[in-house]
Design a protein that fits this description.
The complex is a heterodimer of chains A (about 650) and B (about 325). Chain A has about 650 residues and is mainly alpha-helical. Chain A has a domain at about 395-425 and about 460-655: MetI-like fold (Orthogonal Bundle), CATH 1.10.3720.10. Helix content of chain A is about 80%, strand content about 0%. The longest helix of chain A is centred in the C-terminal third of the chain and has 34 residues, at about 565-600. The radius of gyration of chain A is 27 Å and the shape is globular. With about 325 residues, chain B is of the alpha/beta class. Chain B folds into two domains: about 1-110 and about 250-310, 3-Layer(aba) Sandwich (D-Maltodextrin-Binding Protein, domain 2), CATH 3.40.190.10; about 110-215, 3-Layer(aba) Sandwich (D-Maltodextrin-Binding Protein, domain 2). Helices cover about 45% and strands about 15% of the residues of chain B. In chain B, the strands form three sheets. Chain B has a five-stranded mixed sheet, covered by helices on one side. Chain B has a three-stranded antiparallel sheet with strand order 3-10-4, sandwiched between helices. Chain B has a two-stranded parallel ribbon with strand order 1-2. In chain B, helix 2 (about 35-50) crosses helix 12 (about 275-285), helix 2 (about 35-50) packs across helix 13 (about 295-305) and helix 12 packs across helix 13 (about 295-305). Chain B starts with a helix and ends with a helix. Classes of the chains: A mainly alpha (about 650), B alpha/beta (about 325). The interface between A and B is large, with 57 and 58 residues. Chain B: InterPro entries: ABC_Gly_betaine_transp_sub-bd (IPR007210). Chain B: This is ABC transporter substrate-binding protein. Chain B: Keywords: Signal.
């Protein structure tokens, strides 16, 4: 009895939900239509109602920093980090610090990488890992790459460990989890420019600030995957552990963590990828190496050598990604009783042997130790010519010029003006309606309130321009990414190469896109949308492919048996089932777009990114934070609505 | 002449101070480097100079606006290129907060203003006069700007007043702000292929002069107070009706603690003064000759001993 009551109650509510959403949406429409008649305070928040939040934030920062003395705490942390960073810096590129043994010769590092690759994934992985390091050395970027790695070698483990501890705490104490999750969500959506000033002030400009910004950016997935993995440990395993009389520590060490191994390693993989994504951006706050070099090369328009650095970053990312994924799949190896120790640790010994051999070789042969500028194989100047020839090719420029004219005059500017024309309350109501449709009053209030806060900060027009670039780029990405994803998912042969392109596009430093985008389309919104589009298409394609591939085989067979054509199978079976996963991809695309739209300030925009860039000139921490929160809140509203919808769909489909 | 006496004065006072306190600290002097070549090479030049004096030097890459906060806190020890136009505001804000000071001015003068590459003259032969530029505004039109000409400005955080000038002089131009120096170069690079006319923000000393020959637009000459007092400048009713100063400063900023921690290096720092030609040469070694910054610095030091040796003695 009780059961049916609950379900009918739920059904009632679900029926009621759309009705309220429709009312909210009609209100929004009404306001829009009545705009010419509306009083000014109903179209925009009047200036008088905008309180000086930036000044309040500034005093709050000053209070926390100086009066509460947080700066002493953070400076102590950065001193500890600096000690670690000095060790890796000495080992990898010979910075003049304790323990004064480095730099390790490149050939020895490459040999160890190859052996590690072999241990994790056989000969193919050995070639990839060893080959990457050989490429880095031969192209003449060894020192730069090692400067980058010296920071990542500290940042990634710190992020993994801290993430693991936070994840454990969140799993143990649900209240802590509830407090932590919103914080993490904000951390992930806060634009990069907002990290920049606090990182420099609290953690000292240089590798330490770069390290901290990287950790802050990379930590959320580790926390999420840890709690997810630990929650999923099955009761039977836990019972077995308890029955064998494990202590709490033993339970954790020998039961929970090994059972959650896969999720934890996926978290590690994500941490590594996100750390590499920050390589260029953190160069603004003192991260040495590839990113800093890339920025200075781009400022003298050396496209060829920038491209080579991009290739290096992609190769390192792909290597680390594949190795850590191979580690996820690889199950612990068990030997028969009585196997001699050298056989158990054969690969470890090989690695040590190769390392020692190459270190000795490097003492005798200079090329094995380091490769000088005259010896490297960099082809920067030649690549430069090729890129320029393509970009200034007559056919290409006539197409891009037409596209630029068409998109600016007929699509982008009209769309932007239309969005700017909308009265503020209408936009807030429409967002609230969307919230209500997927998650009832709670979602409606959350999403609506987020946008209302943005309006109250007085940065509404800038926020809408930001939103306009995001929406335009994501629509374009959907128009191109979804068909490609569907095509790739249906032909096995296509899936692998397209996924590889996705990986490359995602790890290739976004800065490098900006220059060709400008050369093709000029400094305007087309370039901005184009740069966001490249970045946002990747998750859309990836999740579409994965969503369609994950449709259970039985359902496909059932469809075949009932005589469905390929088209019917796609439209009626595969797509509906893949839709929740595709929605996650769509959500990721929007999050990526919000990330990239701020970076696009380097092209030249009129949105929040431009205002954020301005705050750097005056060290206006308070205003910077207010602007950052505007971006985060808009991103979070979308995140909330789409993820809610995806979860609803999943529940309905019972997957 | 006044400059020389202040130099002598500061040298003398530093010499007295150097006699009184012990030698430089063995902690590394931290020199910030940014993302344009002349600054990177100059930083390496000065760093290697300090090294010949027995100091340890380390370089750290930073944002060129946020760096003043770091100098103030002593996280980095100095800043070698404080451009009046681009960084004057950040520098003055940091001066007010305290922690850093003006440690000298380069001989080089900087100019930041509207500029065009030479091929633009074909489409608009009356250049470099600003009224001639205004008459051929249509040649600079783009889809975004309609029938008005486009002026491509620098990033907004350089705090220029191009829009005010367009309004004050009643020009047929729309200001579009690029987001970075790289964006400016990309636009010139793209215009170069078809020799399209383009007018944009540029400055000297700069590597671009060597790659793309060009000229500054001649606006009404800068007069003191032009941006504040409407009476100054050709139009008596508005402000901002002049070009930018053609001789902006290029200063050196130092952390207040530097004088005590590294007295010898500080003394050398206050004597440093590079000329426009020297700065252009440093940039050229990297941008045109494709050398690495540290090698370029070593080469420059070897070729110019007579310039820098007196500074370190």
């Amino acid at each position: 009895m009780a059961m049916t009551d609950v379900s009918s109650d739920r059904r009632d509510r679900r029926l009621a939900a759309p009705r309220a959403a429709v009312i909210l949406l009609s209100l929004a429409l009404l306001l829009t239509l009545a705009k010419p008649l509306l009083p000014a305070f109903l179209t925009r928040v009047p200036d008088g109602a905008v309180l000086p939040y930036d000044l309040w934030m500034q005093s709050l920062f000053d209070f926390i920093k100086d009066d509460l003395g947080l700066i002493h705490v953070t400076r102590a942390i950065s001193a500890a980090l600096e000690w670690l960073l000095d060790i890796t810096a000495n080992l990898l590129y010979g910075k003049n610090r304790w323990p004064h043994v480095g730099p390790i010769p490149w050939s020895a590092v490459a040999a160890v990488a190859a052996v590690t690759g072999y241990a994790l994934g056989g000969a193919r992985m050995a070639v990839l890992a060893g080959g990457t390091f050989v490429w880095v050395a031969l192209i003449g970027q060894w020192d730069l790459a090692m400067q980058t790695m010296s920071v990542i070698a500290v940042a990634a483990p710190v992020a993994v460990l801290t993430g693991l501890l936070l994840g454990l705490a969140a799993w143990k104490f649900p209240r802590f989890e509830r407090a932590l999750m919103p914080f993490l969500a904000v951390l992930q959506t806060l634009p990069f420019f907002t990290y920049l000033l606090p990182a420099v002030i609290f953690f000292k400009v240089g590798p330490t600030a770069g390290c901290i910004a990287t950790v802050a950016y990379a930590i959320p997935p580790m926390v999420l995957m840890t709690t997810l993995g630990l929650k999923a440990v099955s009761d039977e395993v836990v019972e077995a552990g308890k029955m064998s009389g494990s202590t709490r520590w033993q339970m954790l060490r020998h039961v929970y963590i090994p059972s959650a191994r896969t999720e934890l390693l996926v978290g590690v993989n994500q941490v590594i990828m996100l750390s590499l994504a920050m390589v260029v951006l953190t160069a603004f706050i003192g991260m040495p190496g590839l990113g800093a070099k890339l920025l200075s090369l781009m400022n003298s328009l050396k496209l060829g050598r920038s491209f080579e650095i991009g290739v290096t970053i992609v190769l390192i990312a792909v290597t680390l990604d594949r190795c850590s994924k191979a580690w996820v799949i690889k199950q612990p190896q068990h030997f028969e009783r009585g196997t001699p120790w050298w056989k158990r640790n054969g690969l470890l010994l090989t690695g040590i042997g190769a390392f020692v051999a190459f270190v000795i070789l490097a003492q005798i042969v200079q090329v094995a130790d380091h490769i000088t500028r005259a010896q490297d194989l960099s082809m920067g100047a030649e690549i430069d010519d090729v890129i320029r020839a393509i970009l200034s090719n007559g056919v290409v420029t006539s197409i891009t010029e037409w596209l630029r004219w068409f998109l600016i005059t007929w699509v982008l500017i009209p769309f932007r003006n239309a969005l700017l024309w909308l009265p503020t309350p209408a936009v807030i109501l429409a967002i609230a309606a969307a919230g209500h449709a997927v998650g009832g009053w709670r979602s409606s209030l959350t999403a609506g309130a987020f946008f209302a806060i943005v309006a109250l900060t007085g940065w509404w027009d800038r926020s809408i321009i930001t939103l306009y670039a995001v929406i335009s780029a994501v629509i374009l990405a959907a128009m191109i990414g979804l068909p490609l994803g569907i095509l790739a998912a249906r032909r096995k042969k296509w899936a692998e190469p397209i996924l590889l392109v996705c990986d490359t596009a995602q790890t290739f430093p976004s800065f490098i896109y900006l220059i060709p985008a400008i050369m093709l389309f000029g400094v305007n919104d087309v370039s901005v949308v184009f740069a966001i589009f490249i970045f946002a298409t990747v998750p859309l394609m990836r999740y579409t492919i994965e969503g369609i591939r994950a449709v259970p085989e039985e359902l496909l067979e059932a469809a075949d048996m009932s005589g469905a054509t390929r088209r019917q199978k796609l439209v009626n079976v595969q797509l509906p089932l893949a839709l929740p996963t595709m929605a996650v991809g769509f959500n990721q695309a929007i999050m990526f777009a919000f990330f990239m739209v701020i970076i696009a300030a380097f092209i030249g925009t009129q949105d929040l990114g431009q205002e954020l860039q301005k705050t750097l000139a005056g060290n206006q921490l308070g205003k910077n934070f207010v602007l950052g929160i505007c971006v985060a809140l808009m991103a979070l509203s979308f995140d909330h609505i789409i993820m809610r919808w995806s979860a609803n769909q999943r529940r309905k489909l019972g997957v | 002449m006044r400059k020389i006496t202040t130099y002598l004065g500061s040298v003398a006072s530093v010499l007295v101070a150097a006699g009184a306190v012990q030698a430089d600290s063995s902690d590394p002097i931290i020199i910030p480097i940014h993302n344009w070549s002349s600054q990177i090479v100059m930083s390496n030049v000065v760093g290697q100079m300090f090294e010949t004096m027995g100091n340890h030097v380390e370089y750290v890459t930073t944002d060129s606006q946020a760096v003043y906060e770091s100098v103030r806190l002593g996280d980095v020890s100095l800043e070698l290129e404080v451009w009046e136009g681009a960084f004057g505001a950040s520098f003055r804000a940091a001066l007010e907060k305290g922690g850093l000071h003006d440690a000298g001015t380069h001989n080089a003068v900087t100019r930041e203003d509207w500029w065009y590459p030479m091929w633009t003259k074909e489409a608009c032969p009356g250049l470099p006069d600003w009224q001639a530029l205004n008459e051929c505004a249509a040649a600079f039109a783009t889809p975004e700007t309609g029938d008005k000409g486009r002026f491509l400005g620098g990033p907004v955080d350089w705090l220029k007043h191009d829009q005010e000038r367009v309004d004050a002089l009643g020009m047929n131009f729309v200001v579009v702000n690029a987001g970075s120096a790289a964006a400016l170069w990309a636009e010139i690079g793209a215009a170069e292929a078809e020799k399209k006319p383009i007018v944009l923000f540029n400055w000297t000393p700069n590597f671009a002069e060597a790659v793309w020959p060009g000229e500054f637009v001649n606006f009404p000459t800068w007069e003191e107070g032009c941006n504040e007092d409407a009476a100054v400048g050709p139009n008596p009713d508005v402000t901002y009706d002049c070009g930018n100063p053609a001789n902006g400063y290029l200063k050196i900023a130092a952390w207040d603690g530097m004088k005590e921690k590294w007295p010898d290096a500080y003394a050398a720092l206050t004597k440093i003064s590079f000329t426009n030609a020297q700065i252009a040469e440093m940039a050229k070694l990297v941008d045109v000759d494709e050398m690495e910054p540290e090698d370029a610095a070593a080469e420059w030091l070897a070729a110019n001993e007579s310039v820098w040796k007196p500074w370190v003695e």
